[in-house]
Each structure stands twice: as C-alpha cells, then as structure tokens.
Amino acid sequence: MTVSETGSSRVKRGLAEMLKGGVIMDVVTTEQARIAEDAGAVAVMALERVPADIRSQGGVARMSDPDLIDAIIAEVSIPVMAKARIGHFVEAQVLQALDVDYIDESEVLSPADYVNHIDKWSFNTPFVCGATNLGEALRRINEGAAMIRSKGEAGTGDVSEATKHIRKINSEINVLRSMTKDELYVAAKELQAPYELVLEVAETGKLPVVLFVAGGVATPADAAMMMQLGADGVFVGSGIFKSGNPEARAAAVVKATTFHDDPAVIAEVSRGLGEAMVGINVADLAAPHRLAERGW
Amino acid sequence: MTAALPNGSSDAGDRNASGPRVGVLALQGDVREHAQVLTALGARVDLVRRPEELDLVEGLVIPGGESSVMDKLARMFGLAEPLKAAIAGGLPVYGTCAGLIMLADTVLDAIAGQQSLGGIDVAVRRNAFGSQNQSFETDLVIPVLGEAPMHAAFIRGPVVESVGPAATALAGLDDGRVVAVEQGNLLGTSFHPEITGDHRFHEYFLEKVRARAAR
Questions:
Q1: Strand partners, B72
Q2: In angstroms, rounded to a whole number, what is the distance separating the alpha carbons of residues A150 and A212?
Q3: Do the chains contact at A254 and B73, CB–CB below 8 Å?
Q4: Each residue of A53-68: pLDDT tens digit?
C-alpha cells in the first residue's frame, strides 16, 4: 500500500495556487452562495454578517453558526472558507470539524487573543491570514499560514488601504531582493521575521505562498488594479452583496480579474452595474474602528 | 505592469528561441507554475486568453483551478468554440485537475449549466475525494514515464470514473481509480505535476507537441 499524506504544506499551499486569478466572495446566505458560484467565484467565504454590517452593527463578531456553514457547503461545489477569530484555536478546530476548505484567521472578527495567533501547523485544514506588510505576512507563514491576503480596510468599499498594503508588501520584497546576504540578517531582525523565510523571499522575489488582496474592493476596476499591482487574486466582501445588482457586479468583477490588463474589457464589464456599495472613506474612520490594525 | 503577468516566457526568451511554442490557458488557475515548468523544458510559453492567441501555439496546457470558472470565461469570451476546433484538429493539449475536467467528454457533479470542451472519451467526477481535508500527496506508478514512481499532489481533485474505448488509462491509485488518461494528442491528470517538481509528464506532453510540429 502506498503511503498517502493529507494536510501537508504542499496540498495546503496548493489549493491557494489553484485559486489564483480568481475572485473569492463573502456570502451570508445559501442564495448568495448560489449567485457567487454562478457568477464565477473560485471560492466563497461563509459569514453571518459581511464586514460592512459588522462595522455598522458593532458588538463582538465571532465565528458563524455551523448550520449556516453546513448549508453553504451543501449549496456549492467550489471551495468554502470560513472565519475564526485571531487566536481562537477552538473556533478553528470547529471549522476544521465542519470540513471547510480554508480557515481565515481574520481581523474582521473580534480578536480572541491579543498576544498569540493560532498555531496553524497543528491543523489539517489550511489557513489564510491577513497582513499589512511583509514582516506580518512572514510571521503568519511561520505560524503555518498557507495563503496570505493583504488586509485593506474591510467593509468600507474604499480600496486605498488595500492599495497601500499590496504596495508595501511588494516594495519590501523588492528591497530584500537588492540586499546582499549579510544584510539579510539585519533585515530579518527589522522585519521581525525568521531569517530562513527572509532569505527565501530575497532569493525568489515573492512570498512562499499565494498573495491575494482584500478589504475595500468594490468595482471591476478596483479588482483589476489589485491584479496589476501584483495580487494573485482578490477577495470581495461587502462590495458585491451591498451593491445594487449583485449578480451583474459579481460576474463583472470575475471578468475584470482575468482580463485585468485589458482596459477595453474592464470598460465593457463596468457598464450598467447599478449602484456600487455606498462605502465609507477610511480617513473618516476613527483609528479604533480600523480593522487592519488588529493582528501584529 | 508586466510583473503581474505570470508569464514564464520573457526571462528565457532567447534561450528557448527554437523551442516549441506552447500556450497555457490563462483564464484562472495555476498558470504560473505550468509556465515555469514548460520554460524550464525549453518551450516558448504564451498565455492564452483570446482566440487569436490560441492560433499561435503548437500545444496547450489547461492548468489546475476551478473548472466551472474556466468554462464560464471560455464561453463568455468566445474561446470555447476555437478550443474545441483546435482539439478536434489534433492540437496537443494537456490538462491537470480542472484541465482534465475541461477535456473530459462527460463531467459528473458539474455545477448547473457547466460544460466541458471534451475530447477525451472519459467520464470525470469533480471533487471526487471530498473537501480540502481529503486532499493528499502520494506516489504513483505511471508505466509510460518509466519505472520510478511519480510523487503526485491531489487537491480537491477529480477522478476518472469510466474510460471509454477511445481513451487509455495511464495510471491509477491503489484502489484502481484512474487518475491519468491519454487519447491521441490529449493528456489529462487528476493531479498536479506542475507543483511537485517532477517534469516527466510535461516532457511526455512536449514530445507530442514536437512530433506534431515536425510533421
């Protein structure tokens, strides 16, 4: 009998690699999950509330009801992701037991531990984690994250933070590439990241896992801009189901992500989508309400 | 910003100038990994998203990814019919995972309205192993590639449930389920040689590309 192995880094990172060039959509009902799959989402994120509602309703945001997650898994054949609170390893254990395809240890929910993130190596199910800069991304990878998404500012419809984070991560990678080997020791210290991972990034010029962008993507042009900035794919949260015509907008974002370098396609798919989500300017948010600052 | 394009061709352009011209269907999926392997094997790699790009290539890889998304985009952007015509015309095509689903004549557990390009006389079941928790790595014996087993990664992969008379099974799991098939110039695998470092399947495919180009 040949030995088979589940839960290896290769298969965990591999699923994220297969999602590249695609759009992962937040959904809160089975109807939305159906719309997302029909529109060409590569995966869905099963949630009780989209970030825009978490933001407006306040209170502690937690893992979703298992019934909701089960129902969404039953509804679609594409991968289903679900969120656990930062550091809440029992929520993550529950999500693994529910057989979700990816666990998002997410700053969109209220953190459960202000010191430690989840030890993601101890799970069979892969994790995606948010990051605002390279050091944060490498710390999450060191803890076992198999996919990184830049954080942006979820639930705003304002793409400026997403832009800032992907640019920051890429520029920090470029700095590493230009360094000599002896400089990388200090770089690792300054990034607060393991030397081995810093060396790997310096040599390959990219993260060792897939990098998606999230947080504030609301239009086809937003998604295409993130792709042109070097994202491997995009998460769209509130941007689709808080808009006037979710079906059309979801399909348009999918097309714009694939043809992100073709302005004629982006123009065509941007027509007649109805109202985009109203949105909040990140600059108007008081610092304690900025989700991207959760996690470290 | 060309850095965003997962194209392996620019770096190795000169070195591979006489190599076969191979496309990677770049609608969605692990395009970059295939492009890197093909480039390392001496091919000139083109990303294919439009019919006119398909016209230029001597072989095509359909990568891993989400088959329902590739199907939708291929039909929406007018690529599905040219792809079917190219397959019927003998273009060598290699599909991994979602790519195998695209090449199967019959797809089981498809989403409503999902179509495949077809070409290989098999019925393939999507997500045959279950969720990501059941994704796995194992060693496979693939006689056409020689004695040494190939390390293979199955990621929410499909399985070939039935092989019709026109197709040939190339490899199976210990339980007999078929995970690699061939029919003429078409090849399909449930697993992803593009991410495990063993290039023999891609070499096998490139032999078909070179043989056809030499005619």
A1: none
A2: 6
A3: yes
A4: 888 888 899 999 999 9
ipTM of the complex: 0.94
- Taking alpha carbons only, the member of A211, A212, A218, A258 closest to residue A235 is A212
Q: Which among B33, B69, B192 is the top mutation candidate for probing chain A, defined by the most A β-carbons within 10 Å of its own β-carbon?
A: B69
Residue type, A120: K
Spell out where A179-288 has E strands: 210-213, 234-236
Homologous superfamily of domain range B13-214: Class I glutamine amidotransferase (GATase) domain (3.40.50.880)
Instruction: Tokens 């979801």: give the residue.
Output: A250
Please check whether residue B36 is in contact with residue B81, taking contact to mean a CB–CB distance below 8 angstroms: no
Domain definitions of chain B by residue range: 13-214
Residues of chain A positioned with their CB less than 8 A from the CB of B100:
none
> B100 with B191: CB under 8 angstroms?
no
- The CA-atom distances, in angstroms, between B151 and each of A268, B70, B125, B190 are 44, 26, 22, 13
pLDDT over threshold 50, residue A170: yes
Which residue shows structure tokens 């039935």? B162
Would you say how long chain A is, in residues?
Answer: 296
